[in-house]
Design goal:
The structure is a homodimer. Chain A is mainly α. The first copy, chain A, has helices at about 5-25, 30-55, 60-75, 110-130, 135-155. Chain A has a single domain (about 5-155), classed as Cytochrome c/b562 (Four Helix Bundle (Hemerythrin (Met), subunit A)), CATH 1.20.120.10. Chain A is about 70% helix and about 0% strand. In chain A, helix 2 runs antiparallel to helix 3, helix 3 (about 60-75) runs antiparallel to helix 4 and helix 4 packs antiparallel against helix 5 (about 135-155). The model of chain A is unreliable at about 1-25 (pLDDT under 50).
Chain lengths: ~160, ~160
Amino acid sequence: MNPILGRSGAAALVAVVASAGALAQQSPRPEQLIKWRQSAFQVVAWNNGRIKASLEGTYNKEEVVKAANTIAAIANGGLGSLFAPGTDRGKGWHDTNAKPELFQDGNSRHVGELALNFAKEASELARVAAAGDAASVKEQFGKVNRTCKACHDDFRAKD
Amino acid sequence: MNPILGRSGAAALVAVVASAGALAQQSPRPEQLIKWRQSAFQVVAWNNGRIKASLEGTYNKEEVVKAANTIAAIANGGLGSLFAPGTDRGKGWHDTNAKPELFQDGNSRHVGELALNFAKEASELARVAAAGDAASVKEQFGKVNRTCKACHDDFRAKD
């Protein structure tokens, strides 16, 4: 036994290890966060495709409502936490496509604005979809897609 | 030129090819559907973890509401379409874990009930989360998890 640490030192070490364990449980690994954000954007892509199919083919209100609600839930669901420090590089399902600029402090305000725009326009799309007018959905869907593109242009690397 | 088909036959062939193209646009490949459903369940897992962390640590109503809303949107969002015929085997992000039994006609009613239970309990969780009582959320969260387990027990292969 370390004569300086003694019993209380050992107890403190146990406490630190236990605490690190608890922290690990609450803070998933960067690779897990990257996998989740890649998954979340895939779910957005799936639902985006459903709305597009409805607008280009036979309009199906029920499909569009479900898809718009899912996109809105994800857009408002705290995606920012999946871009935590340490996730600027790494592999989820695949290497992240996020540009390093996304994680630079000087860009945080701009990133926050882009995320808020996505959330705002997606919520509006869910509202418009529930009302059921296809022309209004098409217009609002365009606004949502422009918020996607705005963020991709600045912060997603080309495949 | 085929003397029997003639011009109208060629036109019909063009129409069939064009129609197949439109169908391909509206009906994503099985691998794409598998990737989307694997993504959707990852998003559920992410949000499940957020609620668990809140129930086991410091309760954060805003976090729980966002997470519950996302799970409810996905549970009610038409997951069934991601298990279309032809997706009983194949690779999305990884080989599907779905058991062949999930796709057997004789099980469709049971599968439908399990899916409805998930949707119903997830919707109730979103309602309870908005009300903000942690004890009620914990109880309802348990009910949601039991609907997950019921389906996994019957239809998800062990890793």
